[in-house]
Amino acid sequence: MWATSPILSTLVFFYLLICIKTLRALLVVYLVLSFFDPRPYDGVGRRIPALRRLPIWNHVNKYFQPNIVFEEPLDANAKYVFGSHPHGVISYMSQLISGTTGMGIESHFPGLVVRGVTMPATFSIPFFRDYALAMGCLSCDRNSIRQILSERRHRLRQSLLIVVGGAEESMLAHDGTADLVLLKRRGFIFEAVRAGCDIVPIYNFNENSIYRLLPNPPGSLVHRFEMAVRSAFGFTILLFHGRNIFFTPYKTQLTAVVGRPIKVERNLEPTAKDIEVYHAQYVEELTRIYNKHRPKYAPDAKDMHFVA
Q1: Looking at the whole model, is its pTM more than 0.85?
Q2: Which is the most buried residue in 192, 200, 241, 276, by most CB within 10 A?
Q3: Mean pLDDT across the stretch 24-34?
Q4: Contact 74, 261 (CB under 8 A)
Q5: Which residues of 204-235 are buried (b: 16+ CB within 10 A; e: fewer)?
């Protein structure tokens, strides 16, 4: 249900809209209010702590036995920009470490508030948008990120977690691989420097083993379909399968390794050279934690490869 919920929620919405006449007016009002809802972009959102404590997360934890490893302790009074890799099919581990209790970063360092961000199109999906907001997700557009990291806006000291590779990287999420889209990603570094937040790379071992993508080499019919959807909507629809027709994920042990924070000096107008220096440190630290922990957590995985 988690893997297919964006599609299912859309189908349910249009089924109710078309087939249940008594709900039609209410659903139209809901759609209009959702379109003008500022919460995904205001840096605060509509987080519901009770949802993050539901018993379903205990079942998820028992199934995947997720683990989180810190290279060094984090400062609960500091602000961070966490970069999470790889994207995987649906970023399972990123959701767990930013959106649930008992497993997430906040549970290990009380006082640290971590807000996950996702593509703006998520908040156009009926019903699913409300789930994402309730879990604490916000939009990943530039203004939203600045609102999250701005203490003056909401008097909260918040950190940010972003899945850097995005939709392009999700198309590379084949089992046993570590193909990342990072070399051309600079925006999250820029915003971290503007806000004066230390930058922390995270690698989620076995994220790409949860589901199996259909073969999608460049030029194939599957690849052309994924690229067409991505070009039209900014995200893509992946063709994948799980253990059965219900998209049950493959049972694999998930481990997130949180690297050492890269110290950042605040600069409201960083130059391209400034960004390049921090980006190089980030790539180096991410590569280091992958090579250090791969023998223990994913011994059969391939070498890390930066595709773009």
Answers
A1: yes
A2: 192
A3: 95
A4: yes
A5: bbbbbbbbbbeebeeeeeebebbeeebeeeeb
